[in-house]
Amino acid sequence: MSSSVPVPVIKVEDLTVEFRISGDWVPVVTGVSFEVHRGHTLAIVGESGSGKTVTSMAMMGLLPGRQSRVSSGRIEFEGRNLIGLRRRELNQIRGGAVSMIFQEPMTSLNPAFTVGDQIAEVVRSHCDVGRREATRIAITKMDAVGIPQAARRARAFPHEFSGGMRQRVMIAMAVSCEPRLLIADEPTTALDVTIQAQILELLRDLQEQQGMSMVFVTHDLGVVAEVADDVAVMYAGNIVERAPVDKLFANPRHPYTAGLLRSMPAGARDRSATIYSIRGAPPKPADFPPGCRFAERCPAVRTECVESIIPPIELGTSRMVRCLRHDQLATSEGRDLHA
Amino acid sequence: MPDPNHDEQPALAVEHIGVEFGKGPRRLRAVQDVSFEVATGRTMAIVGESGSGKSTLARAISGLVPLSAGSVTVRGKDFTRPTRAQRRHVQMVFQDPYSSLDPSSTIGSSLAEPLIVHERMGRRDRGERIKELLDSVGLPQDAAGRFPHEFSGGQRQRIAIARAIATRPEVLILDEAVSALDVSTQNQIMGLLNELQEQHRLTFVFISHDLGVVRWLGDQTLVMYMGHAVESGPTERVHSQPEHPYSQALLSAMPVPDPSVRALRGRTLLRGEPPSPYESPRGCIFASRCPAVIDVCHTVLPPVRTSAAGGTSICHLETSGSFAPVLQTQA
Q1: Single pTM value for the model
Q2: Chain B nearest CA to A131, separation (Å)
């Protein structure tokens, strides 16, 4: 281990994002902090409405201007705060050193241009190359992401590609300028499981070749186990637990994480037994309680949980949990809380 | 409760059914020669990827799409071209509870509709039955006076299930019924389905792309690829010892929620994508992507093989043992 601490590729510190909901500014993401080092993958996992996509959009400066605002916090890319940058400065970084892929590849591509032109456009706006060179790079990238007959397919339009091939086109575009950070928001959710396996393998290969870091947003714990080095679990706008992937799965310290892991269908049904499920539903942003946001559904809840904001509690250097009773979960007795 | 094995007659029998859309060169054979039976109170799970024909199969069984071949029998009675009066015996629950409920009708009137159409029930009886239905899916009585937008996704799916069982159907077809739900809600609905099946001896046809869910709910599993049932059998057998190369690839592609096995597992990555559904290859439908393909696969339709461990698989290769090593080298 070197003695100097390397600068993380991306560092998010105490990020709070508010949305205007019927006239009022309501925080939908609060106090989110994490960092990702070179070549590493952080998975942000959560259910719908947990704030995982808002967090990734904020990192790219893609939140809708009038309805939302970053009310506090920093987003540092290689030491430079992205919040408050002008659009022109952001555009230098977005699509170049930092790029993003989304769930729905069809809506992210322009149906009126060939895919080759669309990739070449990204290349030209970030690298000092001519049209012909940009097209050549586009074809090389399409080849690299496993699109057969890339030179011919570059002249085809998005509708001529299948879902899996379109996502490859998106990835080719995203990695065309060799980004140092790739933000992937549910990139395989719309795809079939056999195609998902291909795309995950492709992302792993690209990461190895280019040493890029990834923030991988997903709702699927199976995918998390496949891709992540570290995991941040989001619930109701907070990161409730952050840990290295093996530690998180083997020994969750937040009752919500433990509940999610127990909710994974495993094996055959026991018809006479009841299937485990977390009772109730998550609160909406306007109804976030003052104390722990999971308290209402938590099997381990105590009076002190509902009284005030639960601060992030660091457990060693690599783990964080927002739970006053995290010690209970560390023991087998704690795991029985979910029985 | 009587042992379901003693029911001579299956609740649902599907024999050699086919579904086609279009004509001539635009003819698409969405389902080809699919057969299976489901015993009363049991679940047949149908898995496959998009375009495999699993939803078309569901619609064909419930009479929403006409069959081009074969027959459907519900508790011994022909259901191939169901009459209006017969339709109540087979009901469906769809993936999206947002679009399958009328946004301008209260939950009460959505639930009353099948009771009026199929049971010709009077107002008072309807009220009683609606209370009973809401109760059986775990919703409060005051839900009847509210509108769909007032409910969460999981609650809406409960409403859709209540409506589907309103006419006491023999068979319930669930088409990706838990796929749009978050994990925690998904388990609540699966628990409800389990309970309803146990209480009312309901027979399920459960269609899903999610192999974990299928393994939990299905007694039998049928794997579809390009309109064909390539493998079927007892769920545990199909999941733990899949015999068809496509089933093997599908199962090995499923992400495993355990980071410690990530480095260890040999995975069968399928190359390429499914062929065009308009083309009907002469031989095996899976030949173009099969990692264990041999010459005969391209020219001759594969035979139906009976598995020693239960069920069938449609493949030229003798046993799972003979091509398992071939698959492992692909990992």
Answers
A1: 0.89
A2: 31
